[in-house]
Amino acid sequence: MKELVEFLAKALVDNPDRVRVNMIEKEKSCIIELRVDPEDMGKVIGKQGRIARAIRTVVKAAATKSNKKVVVDIV
Description:
The chain starts with a helix and ends with a strand.
């Protein structure tokens, strides 16, 4: 999951070297924190949050195989 979020975020931003992904795992859930450069925040969120929603949808679809609840947090 971490690699998937990192790949998607790096494809969207102007400063891919400033993308940081932190994964916090629990028993039945997982929190993925995505940190980007403040200048790239708008590109990751998108108009009305559409890109952020799309990233979350893709990650949730990939997480169904592991039967875990995944939350993507853009910090």
